[in-house]
Amino acid sequence: MNTPITIIGAGLGGLMLARVLHVHGIASTIYEAEVSPDMRAQGGQLDIHDYNGQVALKAAGLFDEFTAIIHAGGEATRVLDKHGTVLLDEPDDGTGNRPEVQRGDLRRLLLNSLPADTIRWGHRLASVSSLGNGRHLLTFSDGRTVESDMLVGADGAWSKIRPLLSEARPAYVGTSFIETYLFDADIHHTASAEAVGAGALFALAPEKAILAHREADGVLHTYVALNKPEDWLEGIDFSDASTALARVAEEFEGWAPELTALITDGETDAIPRKIYALPIDHTWGRVPGVTLLGDAAHLMSPFAGEGANLAMLDGAELGKAIAANAGDMKAALRAYEAELFRRSASAAAEAERNLKLCFDESAPYSLLNLFSQPSTNQ
């Protein structure tokens, strides 16, 4: 089987690429390891920025539909110290510059915008090899094979396509996350709900933080962040959620109880996650017939809030470049990658800077200083 444009990964970036290609009358096929779109939960809220994520949605002809899934009021921001003292309390200003949406809702919007036969579910990539002249052979875990004339790696942090272009591998940034959820918070977790407020909470101290989002229907999504060695999470038994969360909460001894309750009152399995990043200046030489987008191209810490936004913009810009250079894929990829490298290096540098600021010796005041600076995003 031969497909002209083959996309590996049905995340936001891969779906956006397929959608923009479809808008321009260009067919593509996505191969996704998951067996269905509902195989797993899709994570929490995303703030979609007007200078990249929203630009992509407009290129995809989906901006009006996007506005219908926005979590109204979700742009509110609070910064607290470890004692629960409110240092910053900014309401949602209603401008829509960075509105919040559920990742699952956004993914569903993109999925529903594609022809039904675009995605091949249950195709876990096992290996990929070059056939020469820009063509590649993909072998999936069940033995099926596909030949591709144009291959796009949208397959995330541990991309199997990246090694065709680059020897770079993600490195641990020194920070680990533990996630959990509280439900019906305004009824059952009133003190924590009040602490979080209407949108995003940042409660920081040197080397650690309790972060949270208020999501729809009274859900509080907690992200505990700790600067720890890479093997630290292995010392906690996450098969017992309450014990695991109690162990994590020990790292916050002396913090306000309404903040530590965001950990100990967690009502779901605790999800451990180590944070990795590619080098800030990650680039590659032009290789015929293959490129990358999203985390496969520029994995960075979440402290710039750009991961999903960049993935969607990558997908939109690659789709537009292919459409604008009909019959000349080399020119399309050259134009796309030049801008990709520029914007991803800028965002990755911002993410690294913000990560250090959030956990340095002056936290949380370092974050307050950052929030007081005018935005330089274009």
Q: Secondary structure elements and their pairing?
A:
Elements: E1 2-8, H1 12-23, E2 29-31, E3 45-47, H2 53-59, H3 63-67, E4 77-80, E5 86-90, E6 100-102, H4 103-112, E7 119-120, E8 125-132, E9 135-140, E10 145-153, E11 171-182, H5 185-188, H6 190-196, E12 200-205, E13 208-215, E14 219-227, H7 241-249, H8 257-264, E15 271-277, E16 290-292, H9 295-298, H10 307-324, H11 329-359, H12 365-372
Helix pairs in contact: 1-4, 1-10, 2-10, 6-8, 10-11
Written overview of the protein:
The chain is an alpha/beta fold. Helices cover 33% and strands 25% of the residues. It has helices at 12-23, 53-59, 63-67, 103-112, 185-188, 190-196, 241-249, 257-264, 295-298, 307-324, 329-359, 365-372, and strands at residues 2-8, 29-31, 45-47, 77-80, 86-90, 100-102, 119-120, 125-132, 135-140, 145-153, 171-182, 200-205, 208-215, 219-227, 271-277, 290-292. Strands 1, 2, 7, 8, 9, 10 and 16 form a seven-stranded mixed beta sheet that branches. A seven-stranded mixed beta sheet has the order 5-4-12-13-14-11-15, covered by helices on one side. It has a two-stranded antiparallel sheet with strand order 3-6. Strand 12 (200-205) and strand 13 (208-215) form a beta hairpin. Helix 1 (12-23) packs parallel to helix 10 (307-324) and helix 6 (190-196) crosses helix 8. The longest helix is centred in the C-terminal third of the chain and has 31 residues, at 329-359. It is globular. 43% of the residues are buried. The mean pLDDT is 95.
